[in-house]
Amino acid sequence: MSHDLHESLRDNVRILGDSLGRTIADDLGQGFVDKIEAIRAHAKKGRQGDVLHQRELIDYLRQLPEQDLLPVTRAFNQFLNLANIAEQHYRARFRRVEDYKPGSQPVLGELLARAREAGKSPRKLVETLASMRVELVLTAHPTEVIRRTLIQKYDAIDECLSAIEGSEDYPERGTRAQGRLEELISQAWHTDEIRHERPTPVDEAKWGFAVIENSLWQAVPDFHRDLDNLLLETAGERLPLDAAPLRYASWMGGDRDGNPNVTARVTREVLLLGRWMAADLYLRDLEKLKTELSMWKANSALKAEAGDVAEPYREILKRLLTRMEATRDWAKAKLDGTNHTGGPIIETRDKLYAPLLACYRSLCDVGLDTIANGALLDTLRRVAVFGVTLTKLDLRQEASRHAQVLEELTEALALGHYRDWDEEQRQAFLLDELTSRRPLIPRRWECSAESREVLDTFKVIAQEHSEALGTYIISMAAQPSDVLTVALLMKEVGGDVSLPIAPLFETLNDLDHAGAVIDRLLALPGYRALIGDRQEVMIGYSDSAKDAGQLAAAWAQYRAQESLVTVCESHGVDLTLFHGRGGTVGRGGGPAHAAILSQPPGSVNGSLRVTEQGEMIRFKFGQPEIALRSMEIYACAVLEATLLPPPAPEPQWREEMDQLASVAHRAYVGVVREDPDFVPYFRAVTPEGVLGRLPLGSRPTKRRQEGGVETLRAIPWIFAWTQIRLMLPAWLGSGEAFTRRLEQPGGREVLQEMRNHWPFFGTYLDMLEMLLAKADVSIAAYYEHRLVDEPALKALGTRLRERFTQLEVAVLDVLQQERLLENTPLIRQAIDVRNPYIDPLHGLQAELLQRNRDADGVISADLSRALMVTMAGIAAGLRNTG
């Protein structure tokens, strides 16, 4: 990494920081800015190992008058968000989206050249890309702490940085851009950064659609244009017009697992919003095309279609515009609950695609290829990717909710109690009903409100075109009957629409049995008749890590995929694996390219689904340039994993992983499940108790409101530990595993061999290294000092920090490094730049948590808001939060 790249990032951080300082001085006076600078100076010197300054920082923060606490937290939070903007801008400018070691950034052109060298024909490359089915599934997990109104201002600040950088020869442009930058930073400072109300599922869906409108709408045709140019160079042909290697799906408004706010009515509303937004975006495209396609030369097919007119393309586009306007009006009327009185609408992708394709073919036939491959091709690419719904909406529900419907139904029909039947009885009953011609559910059946809601969801499926919907996911799936139940309810209530059904295996036990469950399922002739030769299976990352610890979960996920690949191959079924990854390491996070290439060979065979959640959507897809690069990374990784798959692990490495996972799991469970002090310590030392106040997402923080840590969702569980910088869920247990192995003969050598030659293990160690660098046991110790009184709990905290240090020593030993992140200077620098701004927020948060507890949760509105701002600021500073 050259020095000037770092300088560019540093310069932008300084420009934004100086502007923020001036804004705060205008608002609160220079004296207040001096306080902020004093706090930052103490934090910076404290970071250099100056214990005196660490103490002075804490003393300074504790002596702040109460009226200063909120503006101080806001100032540091705002700086961290501006630092993120500078880094995003840097990454977009220098095509660095992911945190790779220098030189390891994947570039599609280089990959195509490597594939050619490996004997893959140009035709094979085109065919593989054309048939690739990669779906990025946007989810609204509650980790996006920044309000949408601020995100829009931050995007505009990014544009100002571009304008300033491009104004060398035009100083007046630079001056204008600097003025606009000052205005935007002032707007951001004077905007409340915390939502006052929790977003609804519809709000979350609107946020997802806004990402498409503001970024992906432009990035998608740009991505295909770049791909076409590469293929023309490499293979002499473009990607087929209807090919869409990458598509988008969504869980926003469809994920009802543990979220009572997602109802059938909400799902219907979100589907209509997607139709309205798609129509609105296509209208802009069609208006532009109508302006541009003024040619008179056309082939006979288009002339026949357009009639006797001078400008046949405009005639076709005028008709499309009329129908698209009617479509938008129809969606609006349905949303408003009124009748649509307009003309015919565009119901399906093909109704939009076919007329545009006719225009394209005509232009090519009459020698106007240059025009055909301009704006018209961009619109055709958008139709191939977004259809007329923008995304495919997935639906997700917990297995027990479907079983409850069957229990009530069998009881009402005097067939017995479904709940009491064993798995064989359930399968026999469900398969019989799947082939029966008579309906099972009585027309006027009176069932519970919960079961009615489940059935109403299947009615939404029945009323939709299948291309509007994605996959039906069953969380907490454990048996073939869980899948058959959904198939039966879809047949009974869902009409002619039959969605792919994906069981989600998420606990350690479920992952270990995933292959056997799918094997039994695919062996059922009645089920195979339903699905044909395609099966989708979802692998859960968050809950398995929470259940078993990160190392044991990662190995279980790997083995489950291997088993599923083998099972599906033996049945002659195409498998699509759906990875439920989050943003953090504890939830399967990390660079997508490395993660995909670390999967078992054969598991990424041209198809892949993966969740993109919360704030990671903004970091990867929030701006067109970044989104373009992220799409290239996904296409690159899936193409490489398909054409040049990674090697299978050596038998010895598998044995090593079995041993490491076993030791890690035992150590993790010994603390989290078996130590009676663990739950009280977790509650005392983290802000878990007040997390519910932060209006992050539409889902409750717990699956059930009663119960302990086991009822907590994986996201707030990780969020709470991240706030105090201990990051415990992502490493606990790994230290014992690695330390024990390093103490044994040949341990270091075999671990290094695995790291260098097995992508799965190498990627795992890279993630662990990044996590250890972001964690900080001294900050966790301060939270404990301020918030924990009982000696037994303090003793547990000491042991946990010792385990952390033990792991850090072991990881550096395996990596043969003096310090963490020696080979990834960009991440190292990003952490170092942010720490002096995050540290004061930690100190303030601990203080505010103590005040909150002293007052039994009854603190002033300003202090409560300040506490929430500390959480938002720490989340922004660490980026991948939950």
TrEMBL record:
Keyword Transmembrane helix: no
Enzyme Commission code(s) on record: 4.1.1.31
GO molecular function, one term: phosphoenolpyruvate carboxylase activity
GO biological process, any: tricarboxylic acid cycle
Broad EC category: lyase
Record keywords, A-Z: Carbon dioxide fixation, Lyase, Magnesium, Pyruvate
Pfam family, one: PEPcase
Family statement drawn from the similarity comment of this UniProt entry: Belongs to the PEPCase type 1 family.
Job of this protein: Forms oxaloacetate, a four-carbon dicarboxylic acid source for the tricarboxylic acid cycle.
Record-given protein name: Phosphoenolpyruvate carboxylase
Organism encoding this protein: Vreelandella zhuhanensis
